[in-house]
Amino acid sequence: MRTAFISVCIPLLFLVIAMPHAAAQEKILEKSGKKPQWVNSVEKGYIIEMGKGLTADEARDKAMERVRESIIRSVAEQITATSAQSTVETRTGNKYQVSGDYASAILTRTAKMPFVKGISASRAEAFYWDKISDKKYGSIWLNYHIKYPFSEAELGMIIMDFEKDQKEKEMAVMDICQVADNSSNLDEIAQKYRELLSLLPQLEDPVKGEAMLCLAKYQGLLKSFSLQALSSSPGHLAYLLTSGGRTYRYTAKPIFKSNCAGSFILITSADTNKITYDFNGCYESQVNKISVEYHFEDISIKNDFTIDINAGKVEFAIIDGFRMTEDDGDSLYIRQCTLGFSINSKYATDFSISRIRLDFSGTNPVIFDDPDIKVRGKGIHSLSVSGNTFIKRATFTSRQGMADLVSGTIEYLNLLTGVSGVLKFYSEKTDIRLLQK
Predict the structure, then answer these.
(1) pLDDT tens across 349-365, in order?
(2) Domain containing 371 — which CATH number?
């Protein structure tokens, strides 16, 4: 028993002897005045903190930082205590599950509130500092004490501001979500998406959970957009931005890329986007493309449009000559006949034939006006036209059943561009078949 008593007392005795010795190592070199009673105490309606530094400014700044942290923590704890929700939700796919620390989220949010910026040393009610020297280590520093007013009324006002701010953000989220469902203006949708992304870090649950669902809706909508070609010809492209069968207006300029085209100019009219460009670097021997890409923050949509440098071109040739068959006449004149022939259209552009002229030797030209022949698509087309001719029979009687050579012209209209053209032909074989008179 005696041994146990001695073993306990020896350490205690050493501690009692050592404490004055340790204190004796520190000496106050200088102080701001008489040490107030509030230093190192707790007083209602005030935050009392101390900072330590090599200079007065450094020590004061550290003390103020601790004041700021204490106020933020007081506000956050009060908000957490009065909140019906004590956890935050995190998103996994399209589902939400409870996880994380709500108090931590509130603490972070509180630190960003406007009132924090107003916490300043100029508002401190009192301060006290002393300059300390440690003989053992040869170090000198300042202890800076601050008495900062912070009442329950101020705390209540800050909490009211917090709740008001959260309510305003909740309304903002509701307004943003409605745009995704109702607007056909992609400018507005893109703007609201940017606002939502900016707003999300400022939210806590349950508002944040609703905002995340809204975000998923916007992302799904933006990713569903496609660029649909409306018309295309060399140097010109018109397209629509569509989603779910709806067409949307968007005035933002996309990114253009091409392996051959350049000098892009975009004109947006209503929901139609029109591009003009220079295609001098595009050739038939290569695949020519224009890439059009839109960016919505972290989402992009694009389409590669093929440039058909032959689009709008009309070029055709006569195959195997003509077949001219008499339909009506008398002993003197061929009054009506049918002209049959085939052509090979090189390009896919539609065109119509407006006039055919055949120049036979020894007689007046045979002309078929307004034949109403339309050629659609590339390839071989068999055509025929009937018309009044009023040709002297004697001119062709000796040629019947024989191949005759004829020159002439075929006038046509490009149905895409509205431009007229003329095909001239020479010495085409013509099979003439007359009625027996």
Answers:
(1) 999 999 999 998 878 88
(2) 2.60.40
Which residue, 421, 334, 345, is CA-closest to 386? Answer: 334
Q: Both 428 and 323 in a single domain?
A: yes
CA 58, CA 396: separation in Å to the nearest integer? 118
The token duo for 28 is: 């106050």
> Where is pLDDT greater, at 407 or 285?
407
Q: Which residues are 423's β-sheet partners?
A: 410
Within this chain, do residues 337 and 301 fall inside the same structural domain, yes or no? no
Cα 366 to chain centroid, rounded: 62
In this structure, the chain runs to a length of 437
DSSP letters of 278-321?
E-TT--TTS--EEEEEEEETTEEEEEEEE--TTTT---EEEEEE
SS3 for 110? helix
CA gap 276, 237 in Å, rounded: 7
Give residue 105's pLDDT: 66
Name the residue range of residue 419's domain.
Answer: 316-433
Q: Which residue has the tokens 């401190």?
A: 124
Instruction: Tally the domains of the chain.
Output: 4
Angle between helices 102-111 and 56-82 (to 10 degrees): 130
Q: Indicate the Cα dihedral angle 38, 44, 45, 50, nearest 10°.
A: 40
In terms of domains, do 141 and 40 share one?
yes
pLDDT digits (tens, 9 = 90+) for 142-199: 999 999 999 888 888 888 888 888 888 889 888 998 888 888 889 999 999 999 998 8
